[in-house]
Amino acid sequence: DRTGRAELIQEKQGKGEEQETQRDYFGELLACFDNRDPESAKRIYEEWLKEATTEDQRIVRKVLYCNFRLKAGYSDALGDLEGLTKEHPTHSLPFSVLGNRLADLGQFREAAGNLVQAAEKESDPESGAKLLAEAADYLAKDKRFEDATSLLEGTLSKTEKGSPAEFELYKGLAQIALAQKDSDRHVALLEKALSIHPADYELRFRLALKYSELKRNALSLYHYRILTTEAPNGANLNNLGVAYAELGLPIKAVAA
Questions:
Q1: Burial class (CB in 10 A: 0-12, 13-18, 19+), 42
Q2: DSSP 8-state secondary structure symbol assigned to residue 107
């Protein structure tokens, strides 16, 4: 969910010792909405907006304020957010946040459309690919599987091989296959994603677990052995033992 948090973190990094004395407008806004105090929230927001030093900061803060209001139940903020997409048509953030809030309302097709527009405005291919994968996920939730798949496959043909963007697109395709309950395609696409970024241990764990569910124990064991070597933890070691036991290797299971 792109709500501008990454942009806010960059803002809050500041320079030198000034970081220590910066006012936490973000936290104050959260507290106001938690306490159902919209008047104070509006006052704090206006002060925060005045302190913006760049146009990008102003856009981020406008979008965050609308997002806070929507999350707090003020439905009129949806119209304000739509207005920001018209006011700032070249900035991705208003479109991505609007898309996610529309998805919250079950308007998946409209949500996907906004995320596609957000992706088109991204200069970074990886960020754009993540937004497209999110758009495809919403199309899949709307049972528009063919549209979801076409969106990502069409982008793949124009994406640099072995790039982070290609990795994100294959992960997105794997998610669509999972929604379609196509386990063979799901694991094949996860394998393809891992071939691009083999150090994504969370993804490898998901794949090993899926192989376990499918009773493909040799493949599950293969991935758990990589995990216990390169990212050892209790869950990986336990699951490795289970995989050995499923293959009828009880001694190794105890050792694991």
A1: middle
A2: -
